[in-house]
């Protein structure tokens, strides 16, 4: 809630300052001055709303909304007056005050309603149904190829065939686990290693994998089967179409109180995109688990396709 409120106010201040500024320096000065006053006002509004939570919970939804919007308007007016006094401006127009109050009320109403809708979507029933739907889409495309590989190895190398089937069983155990279960990054790396071990039997030296793992990242909480769909797509679109094969880099590293997970594969410059569904699935499950605390971005150039995920630790 705090992060959403502060980011929303900063975005509004950036836009408002830009509309009233002629130069970048003037815009930056106005934005900085306004932020110094507005951010404490937003935090004060959050403290007051949280303090009144017990009272508000006993009220009907329309009354709750009216109360928080009135508080939002009051906080916006106080911040606006403090800003005007700080900058020693002339007596401001009442219309300006009305506009500021309306903006504060609308911002408070938007934040409360968005949080209410998110709570409904992430309730036990809504979230469980959504996770079931998303996890049901994770069906490894390599099933039949893996079984064929195991069959071919039965006579040539029975022990290797047994290891392939054990790895496949472990992957499907994860795919069929309860959608509400969470995993750790260390466990997801182990599953990805099993998957890439199976694919190495298919592609041989055409598949080159570089693991750069930071042990300090292993306990990060992640959705089940976060990494496997990403490396599967890296193989499917970065290695399989190329006669000379390709490289897959998996890297984890700690960045303060966060963990960065990077998956990069080589691509042909003319190769069509094909990562969309897997990425959308991963992004949605990250959002359901971590909300705005997790971020996922993609980068592509003529030689590489990169997925970068930032997770809270």
From TrEMBL:
Residues 130-207 form the Signal transduction histidine kinase internal region domain. The chain crosses the membrane at residues 37-56, 63-83, 95-112. It comes from the Bacteria. GO terms for molecular function: phosphorelay sensor kinase activity. InterPro entries: Bact_2-comp_sensor_kinase, HATPase_C_sf, Sig_transdc_His_kin_internal. One of its GO terms (cellular component) is membrane. The keyword Aminoacyl-tRNA synthetase does not apply. Keywords: Kinase, Membrane, Transferase, Transmembrane, Transmembrane helix. This is Sensor histidine kinase. It comes from Inhella crocodyli.
């Amino acid at each position: 809630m705090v992060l959403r409120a502060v980011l929303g106010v900063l975005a509004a201040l950036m836009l408002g300052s830009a509309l009233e500024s002629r130069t970048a320096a003037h815009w930056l000065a106005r934005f900085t001055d306004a932020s110094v006053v507005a951010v404490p006002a937003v935090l004060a509004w959050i403290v007051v709303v949280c303090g009144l939570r017990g009272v508000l919970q006993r009220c009907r939804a329309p009354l709750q909304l009216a109360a928080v919007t009135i508080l939002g308007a009051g906080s916006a007016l106080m911040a606006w007056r403090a800003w005007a006094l700080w900058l020693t401006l002339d007596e401001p127009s009442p219309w300006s005050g009305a506009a500021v109050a309306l903006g504060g009320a609308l911002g408070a109403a938007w934040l409360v309603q968005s949080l209410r809708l998110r709570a409904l979507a992430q309730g036990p029933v809504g979230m469980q149904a959504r996770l079931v739907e998303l996890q049901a889409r994770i069906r490894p495309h390599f099933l039949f190829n893996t079984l064929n590989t195991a069959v071919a190895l039965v006579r040539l190398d029975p022990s290797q065939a047994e290891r392939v089937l054990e790895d496949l069983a472990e992957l499907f155990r994860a795919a069929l686990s309860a959608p509400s279960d969470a995993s750790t990054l260390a466990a997801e790396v182990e599953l990805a290693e099993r998957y890439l071990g199976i694919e190495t039997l298919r592609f041989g030296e055409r598949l080159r994998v570089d693991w750069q793992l930071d042990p300090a990242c292993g306990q990060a909480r992640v959705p089940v089967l976060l990494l496997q769909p990403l490396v599967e797509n890296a193989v499917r679109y970065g290695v399989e179409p190329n006669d000379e094969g390709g490289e897959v880099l998996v890297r984890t590293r700690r960045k303060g109180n966060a963990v960065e997970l990077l998956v990069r594969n080589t691509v042909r410059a003319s190769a069509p995109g094909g990562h969309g569904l897997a990425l959308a699935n991963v992004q949605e499950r990250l959002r359901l688990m971590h909300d705005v605390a997790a971020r996922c971005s993609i980068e592509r150039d003529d030689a590489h396709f990169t997925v970068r995920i930032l997770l809270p630790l």
